[in-house]
Design a protein that fits this description.
This protein has 443 residues and is an alpha/beta fold. Helices cover 40% and strands 15% of the residues. The protein contains 15 helices and 15 strands. The radius of gyration is 23 Å and the shape is globular.
Amino acid sequence: MLGEYRIAGRRASEIAASVEQAVGAGELQPGQLLPPMRQLAERLGVNPNTVAAAYRTLRERGVIETAGRRGSRVRPRPATTARGGFRIDAPAGVRDVGDGNPDPALLPSLEEALAAAARHDAEHPGLYGQEPVDADFARLARAAFAEDGVPDGPIAVTSGSLDAVERVLAAHVRPGDAVAVEDPGWGSLLDLVPALGLRPVPVEVDDEGPLPDAVERALDGGARVLIVTDRAQNPTGAAVSAARAAELRRVLARRPDVLLIEDDHGHGIVDLPLHPLAGTTTHWALVRSVAKAYGPDLRIATLTGDPVTVDRVLGRQRLGPGWVSRLLQRAVTRLWETGAVDARAVAASYGERRDALVRALAERGVAAHGRSGMNVWVPVADETGTVARLLHAGWAVAPGARFRMSAGPGVRLTVSGLAPADVGPLADAVAAASGPLAARSYG
């Protein structure tokens, strides 16, 4: 079962450390089965409860996963090897089209907004005991949600989308619970779920979002949570269409106990309409980050949801950071009030570059996907070889391993830094490096 490695320790912390160190050193391999708790307890001469506590710690850290009677095993990709490590650094002379960043030229200047927030603070200092959400921020955020058909719900503010997702998960689920996630999907989310001790269940997606049959299978298999990216899905650019939303609502309506989390990080850079699923289940949350439209370093995301979920998030937040800087909330409010970002123009700019690249690839016999947002996903037969050949040709791309579980190999291209003259040479390089591969979906 463990080969040559022997778990050691007398206390739960020591046993957990022994396993975690072995995983980090490669002495315990991904997928390797751990001894049953009673068997290990007998071998170590400790109480079975001690081993149970050690295994619980390892699950919460994302090192192992437990599947009932099938036992506990090392996760396929332990949290100690985050997907962020699957990246290609662009050396001198190589163009980086894999970083996933927005185009700085499309981001607004923050100078006036931050100055306005500072002037407000000079007159009304931010102190302990004040409301965690600025009233004007909440008013504008709520109005934007209502305009897009999101059900009425209280407003919370978090430090980005991933922070919001983590807080919503912590409010409802426990280690060992299964979470349905898009595959391919956001790499940071695919790391976060197991790091919380939760079990990710892959759901296949196409250009219109998660496939209803795949969602149904995941929920039938015991998934208690479904996480959906509404628009500008990372890495594929998928956007949930009206027809797909209707199908997914029918699936969810039969399972009102499922926790639904929607990520609309594309708000402000996408011209496709939002088709929210929110309100179909008893507990739901929808989060919008300002990162792509206004700047990643603002670290502001707006969260709404059912009253119980938002109340739990705010309550737990009070016991940690307390609140997200109201100075930054007021700066974002100022950006909204002054129309600092022309969402249509930004969406058009990304759309022109994205569509041009997808067309150029198609002309060269390469299937690519990019319905919305700033990324294009290219399925390939040999991911490692494609990445290496592109790097040799002068282009650094994001390896698909960062974004997938059981989905087929691919590479992600970010169009933010592309000029019209770049599209042809990049398409030529991708075609030469990957060869043609037709695909309807990404599974």
